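Q: Structure for this?
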Amino acid sequence: MEQANLFQEIVSLCKRRAVVFPSSEIYGGINSCWDYGPLGVELRRNLKDLWWKAVVQGHRNVVGADTSIIMHPEVWVASGHRDHFTDPLVDCKSCKQRFRADQIDLTKCPECGGQLTEPRSFNLMFKTYMGPVEDDAAQVFLRPETAQGIFVDFETIFNGSRGKLPFGIAQIGKSFRNEVSPGNFIFRSREFEQMELEFFVDPSTEDFWFDKWVKERLEWYVSIGINPERLRTRPHGPDELAHYAKACVDIEYLFPFGWKEIEGIANRGQFDLQVHARSSGKQLVVFDQVREENVVPSVIESSSGVDRILLVALVDAYEKEAERSVLRFHPTLAPTKVAVLPLMRKEPLVEKAVSLEEELRGSFTVEYDDAGSIGRRYRRQDESGTPYCLTVDYQSLEDDTVTIRFRDSMRQERLPVKGLTGRISELMKSREPMPVE
Amino acid sequence: MEQANLFQEIVSLCKRRAVVFPSSEIYGGINSCWDYGPLGVELRRNLKDLWWKAVVQGHRNVVGADTSIIMHPEVWVASGHRDHFTDPLVDCKSCKQRFRADQIDLTKCPECGGQLTEPRSFNLMFKTYMGPVEDDAAQVFLRPETAQGIFVDFETIFNGSRGKLPFGIAQIGKSFRNEVSPGNFIFRSREFEQMELEFFVDPSTEDFWFDKWVKERLEWYVSIGINPERLRTRPHGPDELAHYAKACVDIEYLFPFGWKEIEGIANRGQFDLQVHARSSGKQLVVFDQVREENVVPSVIESSSGVDRILLVALVDAYEKEAERSVLRFHPTLAPTKVAVLPLMRKEPLVEKAVSLEEELRGSFTVEYDDAGSIGRRYRRQDESGTPYCLTVDYQSLEDDTVTIRFRDSMRQERLPVKGLTGRISELMKSREPMPVE
């Protein structure tokens, strides 16, 4: 299938099944804001949870934080965002449309051929006012990244945790950027959720930790079931590097619209703690017991976005077959783990199915469905990415077994109801959670 | 201890241990914005997860959503927030301070005795501009509640899930209110996280479902370990009811500063879907198969806040004893489940402790600590609310056992290392997760 069509099919599946769709649609929508429905929100939860378990709970020396979206405005002066987090904009003097000056040929308006204004800087931070007076003193910003909250709290968290270098602080939270050209569905939006790790290290070890995190983060995508052939790393050339970065590697994924960044890992050196120390007048240092001196830690950053990885998960899992559409999520990612289906909407099939559903609900996300033919119900679950369908039929009433149907192979086998929760948990953790024979 | 001192002690513990503390502190802080550190963020995660498991995953007919913070501005016109979500404000003509007109005697300024202006309405929604032009057409708001996202998406989610009444949609997410007088630590802040359920029912059944949810939500607080004697329900009198509500019950908790609302359960009738239907021109109805007619569902709402419940959890768990401060969290709430402590920082004690830590880390939040006397380390864990401390001593090297110490009773017993993960999981799920003998 053509890649553009494939992508359109995914977008339309997401709308139809209420996975993710434009915000405020009954009012005509609002550009580049997205709402997640039942399947989408469970997928988000699973992604965030897998990231947190891997990055925070999996490392003795990484802790979590959750800092506020609205921060003291001086934070953005110190970080450079207030003065430099800008895009160059031009207006067309005839049709009044706006464009990013770095994305078009500046000789004539690409829409009407009219004359363009000189480029000017447009700051991407959303601003608002705290308190009842709308003046400069009350002006605050919605954070454009979660990282600064971590830098600003470094000392409190490091000391409060009795930290030692290397020491990581990780955060998941919303950020906002007033992008001039958002797009590609949820790939680039104005409101999005970041997952960032700032890993503080002794400056003499920064190269070692940088390489280690690039490797670990790449492996994480494979561990959640993403096809390794559609993943690659791309080091930034010296001309691409941000002014604060000593090195940067993008992890890229092959979307239907090409290879695109899904995560950046950067060696930010001592830049961040140094600028905040200078601006705040605090000493943001760590005492090195061996050298008996204060050290400004260097920072290795891993920065990714929930919405973008969710798009990776969707694109990577989607497959159109002759008879069905399937989302082949790894079972740990799948929004619904188990569907319970009575063969027909008839007693005592329904009673048995409902009691099974209630038992499983304590351990998994479960859907119960008794509407329509069993074939249609299977296909509906395939399209939601549900790995395991359990069918209660007449034999179930006799020998207390059910049919388990595996999403990927569509293979079926009978399993005793007794011990089913444990059996499904084991399957999900096993090397072959979707057995083919 | 005096209640005000008790509260001050909790606030100071939260700062010292980096549980929760003012945002942007190195820049002097920003009024009423709070950052959560390592222990705080795990406590938040546990609370949100317990709510989600109870409200969403525990009910076949409740699904989740995650809608955007910035929505179409017409949403707030329809809901009434743009015109009526206001506080009355007065200014002092002498000292220029501002006050809520409904909270002071309006004859003279409470600070300097000066003359006050006439009260005027101040809208509590934060506003900002989307896109590069700051004009009325680009003005948008940060949502003051998550509920409206659910109402606006009702049709898409109901149809996408092939819903039937009764049908609930639940959401956890940030909201913003430009409060004139925030305060009481994290009790009332300008940026906060809500947990809301909108439960859509046939209007003829609304009283039944209202009562059912009041009961279920009250029981939830007891299930997460909150002292039932500090919980009560308080029905709103007819004069207190919001214009859209037919009935409302607050769940209140006895804080050191008095009984305060921690959750509101409201029967909102058909108000919400009716106003959005009228404003958007869509038919927000459900077809009733029995009566063969369209019905506008009524809404039963449960609305609570993560930050506020987290404060309940802290206040309820905190106890000052002669020798120690303890946070007696229910183990499912506790940020750190298990601490692994080698008796001394010596091999082969450390090696054995580290290998135990790594094994447990796959299943629980674990802290490893080998710094200081074992008594001090126990007290540090008590103060973090860690229910189980495992000590590796010389006997451990001989018989492969460890000492488990229970936080509440400080009782110790020996357990084999083999099977420890399973034993701790069982303990946490048992009726007596903190055994006293």
